[in-house]
Design a protein that fits this description.
single chain; alpha+beta; 6-stranded antiparallel beta sheet
Length: 755
């Protein structure tokens, strides 16, 4: 507020001589203003203001309660605006500039044209014709299609109750958002935003007696804000494009993303990717002198990135809460306490990185896959709350092994979900590093090793971690150095998957909800962690890529992508001139011949190589996992025909579920395929001889062992039911298996030594 007042005084002189109510033009450009600097009380005094310049600041939104009835021109260019719905209050606006707001899309331009009925100029262009089309033609078409969805599938409940009407509204809006399609895919976000608005208005007109006879409005802006209704999947209220859904709620995730990323946030990385920021979190050690037979409370501190702040925190001693094993023990605290429901005793450790549940050794399992639960960690909590069991965890990967993997860094695994990325030591359960970006939703991560220049002119290799999510930014982290050294934008929409090339380790593939797979070269690092990215290839997909695999024997030639609509193969050889590629072929499976209400079994939500030639893949709702031959399948391709049937070697029995995004993984060195299910179980398959599996007989090969959910127990609340296992990872030697859940729990399993 002080900044604004000072600028007004400088431009207009004494406020006594120039009353605020008479000012018609003000320039607040280049003042590094943030949202909290905009005083509604002060701005509302500028009642005669006609032109306002807020360009080149750090603003994300206009403040609520703003009233500038005479404002005709607003320059909001070069800011950090994410959603345009805050502009709705400027009903008299005729000219608006929004250039260089990095996260706005063409859908946002359409929203602006709908929300501001008097707008004539947008970003220097006359939009009168487009605005008229949006207000009349587009709106009329959407109204007709929404009404069609109602008349075909819905009726009012009899008798109508508050609960039944709420349930009806939810189902109707879901169905309308999923079924109504109009315009190009670039406008999907706008279309869903308007469809939800229209569906609610139409249902209200049917249920409100005073409005039953009113005409359906064709051009009145809705009252809902973008934060309430923008970017849904099927229920139109999910910020997370991967929010769990069933097959009865199958709106395409790429059509549901919200713009994101607050670059002005205190926890974001600096805009210049060559600039560095320090990670706050440091390893936490338990106190060896204290032991507890019970389990511990969750405590997940914020570990944020600090702009222009280069520091490391000194390690702190962790505290241990002494709690009895039974969840009903006297004096048990309200925070989360857990035991593994197994015959053995349960010991625990509390760290500032989160809750660790640790099971001591008991009898070694006689089953072939001798895996036992070791830790359950709750280290991705929102606002560090021990009551957070809603954050969904999406991806995990083990750090590449080399001579530097010693001590706490031996067998370290990275996990991501919600706003955080964690690096965990599997043996101790300590969270070694933690990286947090408020407002982010991390979906994927990948490790690689790049060269870093040294003072003597030599170069050394260092392990780096790339992470991405709904903001479309790739964050680059050097965990050993406690440093998040940069970022770059890989997609205008969310990033679904990241994969580094195992041969050319600076080559990074990003798959986004914009239906593109992009191959980047992120290069190496100089002594100051400066780096440079270059785009090498762009591959167009017809849906969101969920998994990327490079051929183990020739990772420079082909890439296989499991997508929402099928499995596709791309030629990635850089020797060819074209930088934009379409799929070379689509690999199809027998399960595609099945049919259901939505006729969709093509989603490939599990994909991994088991050997140099054998691939394990899973189609949504399939109830099994296919093992198929890459070389045999590719040999069947003839001419220009793109669809090629997979050469199936075996079919592995798995869970019958309609839950999406339960991905599988493989451990080639031990011949293991592992996939979690919707009940917290791990289906493990020890593949030693494919010749015994008879796919033609129609019989699926049963799992070698199904590991049951270890059933952690919350104090005073009983055991936690088995959640969906979103992702699993194994280290190359199968010492550890890590499973991520949709209830904010990381489960570490350990392979028992001995026979």
């Amino acid at each position: 507020m002080e900044k604004i007042t000072e600028r007004i005084l400088l431009e207009k002189g004494s406020p006594k001589a120039n009353k605020l109510e008479k000012i018609t033009k003000i320039n607040l450009s280049r003042m590094a203003l943030k949202d909290q600097d905009l005083s509604v009380a002060l701005l509302n005094k500028l009642s005669a203001l006609e032109e306002l310049d807020l360009s080149r600041n750090l603003l994300q939104n206009l403040p609520a309660g703003l009233c500038l009835p005479q404002l005709r021109l607003l320059n909001f260019s070069n800011n950090n605006m994410e959603e345009v719905t805050s502009l709705e209050v400027l009903t008299g606006l005729e000219e608006l500039r929004l250039e260089d707001n990095f996260y706005l899309t063409v859908s946002d331009e359409h929203k602006v044209m709908f929300l501001l009925p008097k707008l004539k100029m947008l970003n220097g262009k006359d939009i009168s014709a487009t605005a008229n089309h949006i207000h009349y033609v587009n709106t009329e078409i959407l109204w007709k299609r929404v009404i069609g969805v109602w008349e075909k599938n819905f009726t009012l409940p009899d008798p109508p109750t508050s609960q039944s009407l709420n349930e009806l509204e939810k189902n109707f809006v879901n169905a309308a958002c999923f079924q109504v399609k109009y315009g190009p895919s670039s406008l999907n976000d706008y279309t869903k935003w308007r469809v939800e608005m229209i569906a609610k208005e139409y249902l209200n007109s049917l249920t409100d007696p005073e409005k039953e006879d009113e005409d359906i409005p064709a051009e009145t802006p809705g009252k809902e804000t973008g934060r309430q209704i923008q970017g849904s999947k099927t229920n139109c209220d999910a910020e997370n494009p991967r929010k769990r859904k069933t097959r009865n709620q199958t709106a395409t995730p790429e059509a549901s993303l919200r713009k994101s990323c607050r670059l002005a946030s205190a926890a974001s990385v600096e805009t210049n990717p060559g600039r560095s920021s320090w990670l706050k979190e440091t390893p936490q050690k338990s106190n060896p002198s204290v032991s507890s037979p019970g389990c511990v409370k969750a405590k997940t501190p914020v570990a944020s990135l600090r702009n222009s702040s280069h520091r490391q925190n000194t390690p702190k001693k962790a505290t241990v809460a002494q709690v009895a094993v039974t969840p009903t023990a006297k004096g048990a605290k309200k925070n989360l306490k857990v035991q593994l429901r197994t015959p053995q005793a349960c010991s625990s450790t509390e760290t500032e990185s989160g809750t660790i549940w640790k099971a001591t050794k008991s009898q070694v399992s006689k089953e072939p896959a001798s895996l036992q639960p070791l830790h359950v960690l709750q280290c991705h909590s929102k606002r560090d709350s021990p009551e957070d069991f809603s954050t969904q965890l999406w991806a995990c990967a083990f750090e590449p092994q080399d001579n530097s993997n010693t001590g706490a860094w031996a067998q370290s695994v990275a996990t991501c979900g919600g706003e955080t990325v964690c690096v965990i030591n599997c043996e101790s359960g300590h969270v070694l590093k933690k990286y947090k970006v408020p407002g982010e939703e991390f979906f994927t991560l990948a490790w690689s090793t790049v060269l870093m220049a040294r003072e003597n002119g030599c170069a050394r290799s260092c392990s780096i971690l790339a992470a991405g999510g709904k903001k479309g930014m790739v964050k680059l982290i050097h965990p050993r150095a406690n440093l998040a050294y940069g970022e770059f934008r890989a997609s205008r929409r969310a990033i679904a998957i990241l994969r580094f090339s195992p041969r050319k380790t600076s080559f990074l593939f990003t798959g986004g909800y914009d239906n593109k797979i992009i191959m980047w070269d992120i290069g190496g690092l100089d002594r100051d962690y400066n780096f440079k990215t270059s785009q090498l290839l762009v591959m167009e997909t017809c849906s969101t890529p969920l998994h990327l695999c490079l051929l183990p024997c020739s990772p420079d030639t082909h890439l296989i992508s499991g997508c929402d609509s099928g499995l596709y193969c791309f030629d990635i050889q850089l020797s060819k001139n074209t930088q934009k590629r379409e799929e070379e072929m689509e690999i199809v499976f027998p399960v595609y011949k099945k049919s259901n209400k939505n006729s969709n079994y093509r989603t490939i939500d599990g994909l991994s190589f088991l050997t140099e030639d054998i691939v394990a893949s899973k189609s949504h709702m399939q109830g099994s996992i296919y093992l198929w031959s890459w070389s045999g399948t590719r040999a069947l391709r003839q001419g220009r025909k793109k669809e090629v049937p997979a050469v199936i070697l075996a079919e592995l029995q798995w869970s019958n579920t309609d839950i999406l995004y339960l991905s599988l993984n493989t451990c080639p060195g031990f011949g293991y395929v592992v996939c979690g299910d919707e009940k917290g179980r791990l289906w493990t398959y020890h593949i030693t001889d494919l010749t015994k599996a008879n796919f033609k007989s129609g019989k699926a090969v049963p799992a070698t062992e199904v590991l049951e959910w270890p059933s952690p127990v919350r104090s005073g609340a009983g055991p936690i039911d088995g959640p969906s296992i979103n992702s699993v990872a194994m280290d190359p030697e199968l010492h550890y298996l890590v499973a991520l859940t949709d209830k904010n729990m990381v489960v570490v399993w350990k392979r028992a030594s001995g026979p």
